[in-house]
From TrEMBL:
Gene3D superfamilies: Zn peptidases (3.40.630.10). It comes from Saccharopolyspora elongata. InterPro entries: Peptidase_M14. The keyword Nucleus does not apply. Residues 1-21 form the signal peptide. This is Peptidase M14. One of its GO terms (biological process) is proteolysis. Residues 46-414 form the Peptidase M14 domain. It holds the Pfam family Peptidase_M14.
Length: 414
């Protein structure tokens, strides 16, 4: 909504928001170009809007001649249909979700490109994916936030209490926004960071003593958006026995660099969201120790990383891939929740949300997401993923966040 334009302009002029980390920068290294994390008003019309998504999914379904099936699997808080597209008839299911943060817009576009490819291509790779996998994609899982071009959804605590009367005296959850954030004013239209609303117990019902909660605690499924994703996940578990792979598409800060270089990170990957439930740190989720597959998550990430490195021959930007910070404990995210439930899990964090980059680099960044997704699907479909070395995951370069600290960024940007 109302971006803080004047403030942002000052920061752009000063170019002051980015400072490279001296410790990792060789003395001969050129300084990176100026980069600002300050919110500003950017055009975003090149990205697929909600209305355009409806048209495009309908088109893909028609031209796919029955390969792609689109269905409505719920409603957002403001009554927008939650859409799902399914392609392939294979025994392994891959669930892909995008734009749970409504200002993170390359995911839906990459998913549409992928559905178009899988729905229409007669290449051997497309055929193998369709035969070995069932790909289930939910391209815009926070459509109200997407329409407002902001992180949070469009829902008040009073609406939550009306739906869950047992919360009548509970305080609002910690992830309820009522004040300005990332240049968006939530005071008139409050909302929640729905990417902290998942709970590893898929049958969980909200209890007043679990509020306000915190980032390192599970969420509550209080939003219709996360309820819809959970219900899809459960129905896929029932149909396939397990959801083999879960991929969630996000954006992060605009000014991170590849360590020791002046190159901005195109995207970061991660397969680590919660402590291993078989260890003392993960004891709170010990009941999931048998289903948790951290090595498989690493292999899936390596598949995406390798595909992007191979594409760097065509465009060096595809080679600027780093590992997302690994010291996270986020059981309330879809990734943490579904990983505990047995899915191999992959996080994509693309450079820059709309308030910093707008549609700049849109085509390249969207293509990078597509290449990573295709790398994972191809590797799972061929069985190659099982032969990838999980240790290669630990060799992916970390992300140089400059002067920004983990504490400041995890809650804000992922
Ligand atoms: Zn995000």
């Amino acid at each position: 909504m109302n971006r803080m334009r004047a403030l942002a302009l000052a920061a752009v002029v000063a170019g002051s928001a980015f400072v490279p980390a001296a410790a990792t920068a060789p003395l001969t290294m050129a300084a990176p170009p100026p980069c600002s994390e300050e919110p500003r008003e950017n055009p975003i019309s090149e990205f697929t809007s909600y209305d355009e998504l409806l048209v495009e999914l309908d088109r893909i379904e028609r031209v796919s001649a029955g390969r792609v099936a689109v269905e409505t699997v719920g409603e957002s808080n403001r009554g927008r249909d939650m859409l799902l597209a399914r392609v392939g008839t294979g025994p392994k299911v891959v669930l892909v979700t995008a734009e749970i943060h409504g200002n993170e817009k390359t995911g839906p576009d990459a998913v549409l490109d992928l559905l178009d490819f899988l729905g229409t291509s007669d290449s051997s790779r497309a055929k193998q994916i369709r035969e070995q996998l069932t790909v289930v994609a939910m391209p815009k899982i926070n459509p109200d936030g997407a329409a407002l071009d902001r992180r949070g959804n469009d829902m008040t605590w009073q609406e939550v209490q009306a739906r869950f009367p047992q919360l009548a005296t509970a305080p609002p959850s910690w992830n309820y926004y009522t004040e300005p954030r990332q240049g968006d004013d939530y005071s008139e239209r409050p909302g929640f960071d729905v990417n902290r609303d998942y709970n590893p117990d898929l049958d969980y019902q909200p209890q007043p003593q679990d509020f306000p909660g915190s980032s390192d605690r599970p969420g509550w499924f209080i939003s219709p958006e996360t309820q819809a994703v959970r219900d899809v996940y459960r129905s896929l578990q029932a149909e396939f026995g397990a959801v083999d792979t879960y991929i969630d598409l996000h954006h992060q800060g605009a000014c991170y660099t590849v360590p020791g270089t002046d190159r901005f990170v195109t995207l970061s990957l991660s397969g680590k969201f919660v402590a291993d439930p078989a260890t003392p740190e993960g004891a709170a989720y010990a009941e999931f120790a048998d289903t948790f597959r951290p090595e498989y998550s690493k292999q899936l990430n390596v598949a995406a990383y390798n595909a992007l490195q191979a594409a760097a021959n065509r465009n060096p930007e595809f080679g600027n891939i780093t590992l997302y910070p690994q010291d996270t404990n986020l059981p309330g995210t879809g990734l943490g929740t579904f990983q505990l439930n047995g899915s191999g899990a992959v996080l994509f964090e693309v450079r820059g949300q709309t308030q910093t980059l707008g549609e700049q680099h849109r085509a390249m960044l969207t293509r990078a997401v597509y290449i990573g997704l295709d790398g994972i699907l191809s590797s799972v479909a061929s069985g190659q993923v099982e032969h990838l070395d999980p240790a290669a995951y630990d060799r992916i370069p970390p992300t140089d966040r400059g002067k920004q600290t983990m504490t400041a960024t995890t809650d804000i940007e992922n």
